[in-house]
Amino acid sequence: MLSRSLQSGASKSCGCDTAEKANKRIQEDNVLERYNGTVISAIRADRPPNKNNRSGVKGVYWNEREGRWIAKIGFRGKSITLGRFARLEDAAEARREAEQKLFGTIIKDYEEVSHA
């Protein structure tokens, strides 16, 4: 059916260019706010925790088996464990410090470049 549509001129493309066009738009318009190998919108401090987050803190979850809070952060495609904590407050602080250290400079640089 598709080949008939292409041959008759009813369709101009088999659809393979759709992904290419979308990718080009994402790159040109920077829809995902990519900068220096990082999706800026994913690391902004004002981004709310995921819906399934039970701790209320991004990157912090309760490990039932260990009986501890675990703090993690994702950076440039890697998951980094920041530590295991008896108190939620300590895990949250470790996550905040890691965000400032890893994300602070990238966000600042991105904002300077995108508003230039």
How would you sum up this structure, described in words?
10% of the residues are buried. The model has no long low-confidence stretch (mean pLDDT 81). The chain folds into 2 domains: 1-31, no CATH class; 40-114, GCC-box Binding Domain (2-Layer Sandwich). Strand 4 (68-75) and strand 5 (78-85) form a beta hairpin. With 116 residues, it is α+β, with helices and mostly antiparallel strands. The protein is elongated. The protein contains 4 helices and 5 strands, in the order ααββαβββα. It has a 3-stranded antiparallel sheet, with helices on one face. The protein has a two-stranded antiparallel sheet with strand order 1-2.
Would you identify the CATH architecture of the largest domain? 2-Layer Sandwich
Strands ordered across the widest β-sheet: 3-4-5
The low-pLDDT segments are none
Q: What name does the CATH topology of the largest domain carry?
A: GCC-box Binding Domain
- Name the CATH homologous superfamily of the largest domain: AP2/ERF domain
> Helix- and strand-based class?
alpha+beta
Number of helices: 4
CATH class of the largest domain: Alpha Beta
Number of DSSP E strands: 5
